[in-house]
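PT: before anyone asks, these are the final sequences, not the draft ones from last week. 562 residues across everything. Please model them as a single complex and drop the result in this thread when it's through.
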Amino acid sequence: MLLLTALGAKAQTYAYLTFTQADGTETSIAAPGTVITFADGNLVATTAASEQTTIALADLASMRFDETATGIETLNAATLPASTPVQVYDLQGRLVTSYAAGDRRAALYGLPAGIYILRANGRSQKVYVR
Amino acid sequence: MKRTLLTLILSLCVIAMSAQTTLRVTRGTIHEVFNATADEMLFSTTAEGSTVTIGGITYLTDEITAITIGEESVADGTVSVTYLTDGTAEVIIAGDVAPYLYTTVSGQDVSIDTDTTYTGVIAYTLAGTATAGSFTMDGKNNTTLTLNGVSITSPDTAAINIRNGKHCTINVLGTNTFADGATGGQKGAFFCNGHATFQGDGTVNITGNARHGYRSDEYTVFSEDFTGTFNILSAASDAINVQQYLTIANGTFTITNNTGDGIDVGINNDSTKTRNGQLLITGGTISVSATTADTKAIKADSTITVTGGTFNINVTGNGCKGISAGTDFRTSSGTFNLSVTGSSYYYITPLNGEDSSRCQGIRAKQDFYLVGDATNFPTFNINTDSDDEKTYGIRIKGWFYYTAAALRASGFNTKDAKWTSGQAKQVTSWDF
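LR: through. Structure below.
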């Protein structure tokens, strides 16, 4: 009975908070302890480890909690140095294209709508292209 | 083996209950705590600025102090208000009811209005100390209000203002103190627009500076579960003023320094209301000490029924009554310790000229019922040490009905009683 009661509570933990920008770019950060503030037209998320992510509100479409990291939470492709090489894979793991980080918008806009994985510096990020 | 299994189950419960990611949206001192879900929280740009929608509420981002992700335990349907020493008040609202609540905090004045479409029960808890504040709550849903050691003094309005006309269960914990502003137009320092039921083992202290101490526009019940203390320290008018009906089943009541009546039960304007104007006392201890002329320690516009409890009443003003029933007075048990020592109160009215009001211990404007048996009967200790020959311990304007056993056992002295339009008649019960 007690176990059923516990299960009925439907408590849910989420390890990650994912921001989705209007261009489909997604950025995941560690959720526990994160504090979000708004200033000068930006969202500023500060994790428990004091890592900051700043996203212009004008570019921000939504945010959501994710249960699992799926290994793609740490890259923020939008903030990479312009010369950093970025590889783009589809969900079947096929390399679709690559580009220098500074050319991100042009490279992504040319892709068919869908979900892609960006990889750079050994880290990954999931993006939606609409 | 059983212990191991129980420990495992309890551990699972704790894990499941505590491991909940929450998202706290803070606007100034107002905090709304949502259980995290996988649903998208949308951002948008409007003419008023950027917005984000969380848990059914669209916030202007400029109004958000911070959004904090954690694992908080905020029960569904709850609102807690804590008055802080820095002159502010912190309000924590559970996310499931947050979309239905309109909350404003100005210094230590807290006002929470519930959307009229909401029909669930909201549980409010008050704590802390407000030296210049108030709590106002409105809506059309049932509520509970836990007074958890809160002290509220208002300079200009009621300390507690329950404008919601539905039922409110008031749970009294610890010592709670309320005082209103002397200049406000409120009906009471502690006001309830609807009906209320008190429970709990704590203490309530009320000072009514403008008018009544406690006032409800519909019925109030102090239930068997109220084992605490209810003190009216002073009142500019009645100490306890209740419309429709008042029931006291338990608790200790001490009323002092009231200018009006001690307890006054009035008739609600809606004549269809049940028990309209009645006072029912089945237990508890009620002590009233008053000096103001022409007042009643305990009064009801309709029937007063006493089946238990102890009354300690000491009124010294001219023309005062210990207990005054607008219609019948009925008792089958209880202890009546009454001291009514004033003289007649003389006054002049435009129509009738000079008139007077006599002191009486117990007055029934209609019939008086003294019932019970040899083991369960009321006890009267009435002192009418007055030089007014028209002062009586018991004044009956209708009939005096009694059971023989109760009349003998109670020590009721008919010489102390006066009845005018009726006669004395022996009965077997008040439902004869």
